[in-house]
Structure formats: C-alpha cells, structure tokens
Amino acid sequence: MLRLTIKILLLLCITCFSLQGFGQETTLKVLPPVWDLAACLQYAKTNNIQLKSLVLNKQSAEQDKLLAKSALLPDLYGSASQSFNHYNMATNGSSDALNYSGSYGLSSSWTLYKGGFLKTDIKQKDLSVQSANFSILESENDITLQITQAYLSILVDKESIIYNEDLVKTSEAQLAQAQRQFTVGSVARKVVAQFEAQLATDKYNLTTSANAERQDKIALKQLLQLPDSKEFDVVKPDTVISTGSITDLNTVQQYALQNRPEIKNAELGVQISDLGLAKAKSGYMPSLTLGAGIGTSYARDPNYNAFRQFDNNFYQQAGLTLSIPIFTNRQNKTNVAKARIEIAQSKLTLENTKTTLALSTEKAYINAQNSQNQFESAVQQLKFNQEVYRIANQELKIGAANIVEFYQQRNLYVQAMQSYIQAKYNAALAARIYEFYLGTPIKL
Hints:
The protein is an alpha+beta fold. It folds into two domains: 38-77 and 112-286 and 324-436, Outer membrane efflux proteins (OEP) (Up-down Bundle); 287-321, no CATH class.
C-alpha cells in the first residue's frame, strides 16, 4: 500500500510539472513575432503597468464607495472576557484559593442623522469611481498616441533601409562597371576610388538605418512592456494614407471639449469639491446615534452555579445619543474654508484643461495641414529629382556625364527620397492625431 501511494504521488507531481510547462509554453506562444498596430494597442491596454496601476486605483475607489454605503447600516461588536485570580491564603489559614469570572456581550450603534454627511459621502465616492475610470481612459489615449508614433518611426526606418539597400546595389553595379572600364583603360583610378568611397558611404547609411530600426523597436517594446524577446517586428502596411480631407477646427474642438476624458475628469473634480464643501458644512449640524447592547456575566460562587448567574446577570440596554457641536476649536470653520479653496482649485484645473485641450487641437490642426502640404511638395520634389537622377545614370553609363555632376544629382535624389519618406509618415501621423481628438480610432 505504501509503494502504491508513493507511485501515485510521483505521477501527480510529474503531471503537475508537465501542465505547468505546457502552460508556460502556451503563454509564450501567445506573443506573436510580428505585430500590427491594433495588436500593439490592445496589448498595451491590457499589460501596461501605468494602466494597471490606474485600474487598481479605480478598484480602491470602489472599495471606498462600498465603505461609505455601509456607514448607513448599524454595526455589531461582540465582547468576551475571562479572568482567573489566585490568592495565597496561607496567612489566614490553610491553603491557596483560585477564583474565576467572565463577562460576555453584544453591542451595536447606528448613526441615524449626521447632518447629511453620510449620503453626501456616498455621492462623492461614486464620483471618485467615475473620475478613476476617466483617468484610465485619459492614460489610454496618451499611450495610444505614443505607441502610434513609435510604430510609424519603425515604418520610416524600414523604408529608409529599403532605399539604402537600393543605393548600395546601385553603387555596387557602378563600381563594377568602373572597375571594368579601368581594366581596359577607359577611366582613371581616381574614378574607381570615388565609386568605392560612395559604396562605403552607402553601406554606412544602411547600417545606420538598421540600427535606428532596432533602437525604435526597443522603444516600442518598452511602451508595450514586452518581455525580452528575440523575435519582434511590426507589420508594414501595403499603403499608408497621408492625404485626405481635414475636418474643420471648430468641429473638432467642440467635440473634444464635450467628450474628451480629461475634460470629464476635470468637471467631476469640481463636483467632488462641491460635495466636499457640503460634507464640511455638515460638521455644524448635530448628530443622532442609536445604541444598544446585551450581555451577561458570572463569577465563581459556591452558592450559585454559572448558568443561574448568567440568567440573573443578563442585561439589555438601548439609548439615543445626541451630539451638538458648540465649540470645535475652529475645526469646522477650517474644514469649510479649505473646502472652498478646493473648489476654486478644481475650477482653475477645469479652465486650464479646457485651454490646454483647445490649444492642443489647434496645434494638431496646423500640423495636419502643414504636414499634408509638405507631403504634396515632397512628392513633386521626388518625382523631378528621380527623373533627373535616372537621366544622370544613363549619361554616366555611356560616358556623357561628369562624375561630379552625377554625384550632385545623386545627392539631390537621396535628399528628396529622405524628405518624401519622412513627409509621408509625418502627414499620416499628424492626420491621425488630429482625427483622434474627434474620437476616431487610430488605424493605418
């Protein structure tokens, strides 16, 4: 029987370890190696530590609300005491003596009236729960913008890598052609050296772009608070819409001022402060409390047993207590004054929040307009420089172009390509941030 029991325990342990390992393996498989923007945003809302902390704050506010509600109910406490006394009676006679006694009871109190404090406290705690929820939404909005910006930075890096790879391939082909021409004596060694230098520069720029992508991926992983993972990449969309109609500023501002969580939170702050003043004023009002209790006791007595004493000593009491504040060492007056100051502070916070949001939406509107105009200009600039660079390449192949002039056109093309990539994603980001103030979810 003992051997059978040991075998069963070993089998259970092996099964538990296997299930634990399988669970860990399954958890790891949940994290995909390639992320799109929607997956990044959803993961951050679930796992970001700042958001988790705000959720805990909300749970704490909910507990405060439950506590405020329970203050309307009577409480109930039980009490019990048992004592043993030893007396040395050798001086009086013969032996030691041991006495014992006990008392037991229940008591309850119920606040019937407290100047409206209890119901006002419940309302205030309810608003605090709502405020905690708006704080979560506000933080989600901030993290959404940060993740979107980091995501688009990676897309910029990816496009930079692509065109730098093309430049490296082009430089390698041009160097190979120059080396062939040098072999047959068509060009001087100086020309070959210039192509070698350009190839080295293009490889350096490619390495820089790759390093920038790795650094921006780390920045995004930090925002997502992902564990250390070797495989992490983002999805590059087929197209990124950088142009489109821009909603007028007045429409966006009106919507933002009526619906953004930071405004709702600031408005709740004013209401919470108003209720704080009502609570402070209730300190001037009398309070009425109902109290009740039952109990019994016994002591060692050779003439009466414990049960008889319990019956004889059983008592019941009930009463009302009226407390009227007459002089409170300025406590109530100070509480009311501080509550009025808190109201003034909350109103200033609301005004500042509205001003900040209005300026932020205006700034986003200007950025969206300017970024779109810059993108349209960058498209034209790239178009013409790309054509000039193509012609310069053809002229270089047939020996009709000066190498200095060729590199001038090449540099103009590279600058135009860099400006185009940056302008494209800047326009996309600025447009989405601006529409985000209108309540439009961010999508690429």
